[in-house]
Each structure stands twice: as structure tokens, then as C-alpha cells.
Amino acid sequence: MTTEQTRPAGSRSPLRQHSVAADDFAARPWPGAGREYDLVMEFVVAVLVVGALVVGLAAVFSSPDEKSLTVKAWAQATPNDFVATAASELAGTSVSESELGRPYNSTGGNQKLGPLGLQKAAGVRIPVDSVNDFVITPLSSLPATPELSAALASWKAAPAAQQQKWGGAYSDALASKAAGGNPAKVAAGDYGPVPVLTASLLAMAQGGGLQAVIQGEGGFYNTDYTKSVLFLADGTYLEDHAVAEHLGGDQWGMMNETQSYPGQSWMWLYSFWYQIEPFKSSPNADALVWGLMMILSLGLLLIPFLPGIRSLPRWIPIHRLIWRDYYRAHPRPQR
Predict the structure, then answer these.
(1) Which of 243, 260, 295 is the last residue of a domain?
(2) Which of 4, 36, 81, 250 is least enclosed by beta carbons within 10 angstroms?
(3) How far, in Å, are 92, 130, 137, 206 from residue 231 at the CA level?
(4) Are 118 and 266 members of one domain?
(5) In this predicted model, what pLDDT tens digit does every residue of 88-107 receive, in sequence order?
């Protein structure tokens, strides 16, 4: 026996009832109020209003666009600092050569987390030879002149110990009270080819040709500024600008935005630890802060699984204050 045969006379199947109800609804006019609605116009108005707000607020509250610091600007603005930095590169006493260490070279520090030498374990992944990358190789790319060619030949023929001796002697002479950092006032001494090399590098930098050679990318677009920034950081020009804009390490550096407050606020927790002991004076501050932030980040991820911590919303019901209208309309059932 079929379903249709068992259905009472005059009744409709559920599918048929739904179809008839839909037809009846479509045939009846909407009894409520109506008005025309232009979706395209709404979209255009929204874009125009939001665009005007963005442009207006950006003009009033935007952060200043500081120009990038370049090797050329450095050499032109503070030539004495540039020459002193070039001499320190040749002496092997610059920060990038003697202090940074991995991943640039193996002569610098070793950040540790307890017994773990994290910096040493990372290895030299971005090799930087300060003497050659910042001074000798760029000078070798210049058109040959008798004076520069002789200076380069003398430098390359000398053993490493002699090279460092020349560079160190010239650095000390520049830093002396008599010279005051001015190469023109340096007393005579055994500096080898260093004065010629540093003077030639200064001229190359002031002409704008040094930075591209240091970066060594060769294309129209430069995206790797590692070596040029390291060279800039070896002098005082970059640091002086940073401090002037309140970006020094003891000024909450990476949190601040130039001439603006509070800057990248999401950085405050990372920067905070560098301002207090024991991190502030620790030679392993980078490794210690990194390790602490990893622990805190792991704790944040595990909040739903930590007894006590996960119950704080019930003990401190701030959410009930925020959603007070909802909880007023839906009171808790009495037990």
C-alpha cells in the first residue's frame, strides 16, 4: 500500500503544504512600510566618508616621516666621525668586528641562557669582514690613482698584526686631545697607508658611491641593508640620531616612535625588561629577555589549562559589567 493511499482524504503532503504556503506568501503584498534603498550609493558614501576621515586624521595626527640615514649623509655631516670609524675598522676595534660576534663573525660576544651558548650555537650565518667589506673592497672598486694604488698594495702586503698596529696607532692619534678627532691635526707617526685609505674612503662616501658597494646587491632595488647599517652603527652618527629621537636603548628604544607617543605600544613588554635589573646590566640581557618572553608567551597560550588562572574571569567578573544589559535581561536562575 502506498503512502498516498494511507493519507486521509483532503489532506496535503508536507512538501505540498510548504509549496502552497510559499506561493501564498509571494502573492501577498508586504503590509509594512517601504522605502527605496540604493546599495551602490551607500557604498560610495561610506568610502568617501571613511577616506576623508583617514586623510584628515592622518594630516592632524600622523607620525613624522624621518628621512633614512645614509652613509653619504654621515660622511658629509660628521666627516671626523666617519674617518675615526674607518680607522677603527682597519684596526679591528670597531663594534661590528670585536663585539657583535655571531651571526656576523666569531670574534665577539656569546649571549648565554644559563649554560647554553645560544649565540655561539647559532653560528656565523651572515659573514661580515669589516676591514674588507667596509674599507678595502670599496676602495679597490675605485678608478686607480698612483697614491691609492700604492696604499692598497702596501696594506695588502702587510701581515695582519702590522695592519692592526697601523690602524690602532691612527685611531689613537685621532682620539688624542691634540687632534680632537680632526685628521688634519693628527701628529706625524707610523700609520702606514691608513691616512690615505681613510681619506679616500671619506671622499668616496661623500660622493655617494660607498653605500651601494658595501651592500653589494648590484640591482636597482636594494633590500639588504645589513652591512651598511652595521657600518653606520660603528660610528656615533646613528646613535646620536637615535638618542635625539628618544630611541636609545635606555629610552625604551624600539617601543618609541619618532616624535610620537606612545609609539609601538605592543612592544612595551619586551622593552620593559631592559630597563630593570638584573637585565639592565647583564651582558646576557638579549638572551635572558628572549628566554623570559618565551616563558611568558607559553604561559599566555596555556591560560585555558592553568588551574586558578583560568578561573580569574569568574572571580573578577569584569565581563558582567561590560555585558550588564544582557545580564540584566537574563538574570541568573535562583538555586
Answers:
(1) 243
(2) 36
(3) 13, 8, 14, 15
(4) no
(5) 999 999 999 999 889 999 88
111 and 234 in a single domain? The answer is yes
Q: What is the count of structural domains for the chain?
A: 2
Task: Give the Å distances, CA to CA, from 78 to 180, 207, 208, 237.
Answer: 13, 14, 15, 7
What is the grid cell recorded at 241?
640620531
Looking at residue 206, what is its pLDDT?
Answer: 97
Q: How far apart are CA 35 and CA 251, in angstroms?
A: 59
Say what the pLDDT of residue 27 is: 66
* Domain range for 134: 71-243
Q: Alpha carbon of 304 to those of 45, 88, 99, 298, 311: distances in Å?
A: 44, 54, 43, 12, 9
Q: Are residues 237 and 251 in the same domain?
A: no
Percent of the chain with pLDDT over 90: 53
Residue with cell 561610506: 46
Q: Distance (Å, rounded) from C-alpha 61 to C-alpha 58?
A: 5
- Percentage of the chain lying above the pLDDT 70 cut: 88
Are residues 177 and 268 located together in one domain of the fold?
no
Asked if 245 and 259 count as a contact pair (C-beta separation under 8 A), the reply is yes
Statement: residue 273 has pLDDT above 90: yes
Residue 4 reports pLDDT greater than 70: no
> Distance between CA atoms of 88 and 94, rounded to whole angstroms?
5
With respect to residue 221, please indicate whether it lies within any of the assigned structural domains: yes
**pLDDT value of residue 24:** 57
**Pair (215, 94) in one structural domain:** yes
